[in-house]
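My current task is to audit a protein record that another person submitted. I have pasted the whole thing underneath without changing anything:
***
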Amino acid sequence: MRRLLHRLHHDERGMSLVFVGVGFMAFLSASMLAIDVGMFMTARAQAQNSADSGALASAVALAYDDYTNRTSSGPAVQNAIEAARLNQVMGQPVSINSGDVTFLNDPSGNPNWVQVNVFRTSGRGNPVTTLIGSYFGVMSADVMATATAEVANANAAGCAMPFAFPDKWTEKHTPAWDVNDTFSTTSPTNPDIFRTVTNTTYTGFTTTNSGLTVTLSPTVGYAIKANFYIPLDMGGGGGSASYINNIVNCDPSLMHFNDPLTEETGVTASDTANAASQLISQDPGAYWDSTNNQVVSSVHPSPRVVTVPVYDTGYFEAGKKVGNFTQLRISNFVGLFIESVSGTNVVARITPIAGTVDTAGGTAPVGAFPKAVRLVE
């Protein structure tokens, strides 16, 4: 018996099975825990998507609905909440309330940032439950995310229409300014005043003019009348076909503030009206909601919302005085909703538009009409 016990005591046969068994259990446990880790990583990515969408939706509302309304019931806050909740985390909506949407200043001190925080946490009563962790006493995990979006002044615009009308001025002859006024500086005592978009007292179009009706007519005798437009040569060979194509399908080239403009002389008012009618036919159900002062359309974006350059009124007036009738440059860009066509005239409403921030385009002017919405954090 003593010999048998001694032999068994020193016998190592079967020990590898013990190590294999222990290793297998450790490998299985790690693999099972990896399921939860992967799930948490997915949840974190989905939470970030939710926060990003909420921040962008809020910034878009600031840019196009109401820049000043930052109350809990305003479009900026409500759009953030709705967009964030639509982007679920592991099949469930995130927790977000009006207090989780905050408005911040950018590094320059401008109040054009919006920050959105979303939660799936124990504190909000909706943590992400574990699959395997519960066997180890970990029943849930907290997931949260933050995103910040910016409403920036744009320094460039693409798909601009191949026609321009004069930027707004301070009317001194028959105040206040309206779309039937004619710009003139000939009065020795009370000349009309135009200040450029880089001036803090810029006189031109701003988003406060949203909803203003403009009936665009071809310029007569190069008079600077508020609703007189000048056709532009945007390239593509020139002439009617190119002009109409640039209205209906747009020229994607970026245009910048102070860019020179070249008049297109080979087109007629009928060409503009024809092209505008084609835009209307692409979205015939769109209309202007006068109550909410915005475009209503089932097409996003509506092809009837276009970007139009407005020319530097003072610069053109100075050019006229020395006989250079086509001395034009971009003062700003405005959005127009093409409402209807009346004969050869185009009836439109001024509306907010998106622009872009071109890294090669310099600093955006303080009075830039188009806005660029982007994530910054």
The radius of gyration is 31 Å. The mean pLDDT is 89.
